[in-house]
Amino acid sequence: MSSQRLCEIEQLLEQWLTKRTATKTALQSLVGKLVFVSKCVRQSRVFIARILALLGKLRYNHHHANLTAEFRKDLVWWRRFVQEYNGVSMINIAQWASPEKMFSTDACLAGCGGVCDGQYFHAVFPPFISAQTLDISSLELLTIVVAL
Questions:
Q1: What local confidence, expressed as pLDDT, does residue 91 receive?
Q2: How would you label 92-105 residue by residue, b for 16+ Cβ within 10 Å and e otherwise?
Q3: Domains and CATH numbers, the chain
Q4: Which of 1, 15, 63, 107 could form a disulfide with 139 if both were Cys (CB 3.0 to 4.6 A apart)?
Q5: pTM of the model
Q6: In whole angstroms, how far apart are CA 145 and each of 44, 92, 93, 117?
Q7: Which pLDDT does position 16 carry in this prediction?
Q8: Listing from the earlier edge strand, what are the strands of the sheet with 119-124?
Q9: Other CB atoms within 10 Å distance of the CB of residue 119
Q10: What are the φ and ψ backbone dihedral angles of 22, each rounded to 5 degrees?
Q11: Are the C-beta atoms of 75 and 13 separated by less than 8 Å?
Q12: Distance of CA 129 to the CA centre of its chain
């Protein structure tokens, strides 16, 4: 991506950081530009998720959304990333020819399990986990941590 393009996106982010509300159309435009960047840097897609969630709440193009502190946190990450990005990804995305080990995990709201090399585990989440009413993504991540 050219330095001019990065500069344009940086200026766009600066404008967005001062906004308090935005229309669905304006949010769609912002997401389009960030998705363009994320095609070059796949690891950045996670920082579009909350923006997309906000966008999904708006029914019509002229409807306005309040831009939350969480929304701004993502924009601050994008601004910092664009300022520091030099075109080199620190996360290797090369495909492995043959991984040494493979494991599989799964979770539901009540418990989790996993398997690797013929060994497996399964467990009901303890009450202190269940009491937090975590979303399924968090429970899936917790299961991966347990498996590792």
A1: 59
A2: eeeeeeeeeeeeeb
A3: 3-84 (3.30.70), 103-147 (no CATH)
A4: 107
A5: 0.56
A6: 22, 21, 21, 17
A7: 94
A8: 103-107, 111-116, 119-124
A9: 8
A10: -155, 150
A11: yes
A12: 23
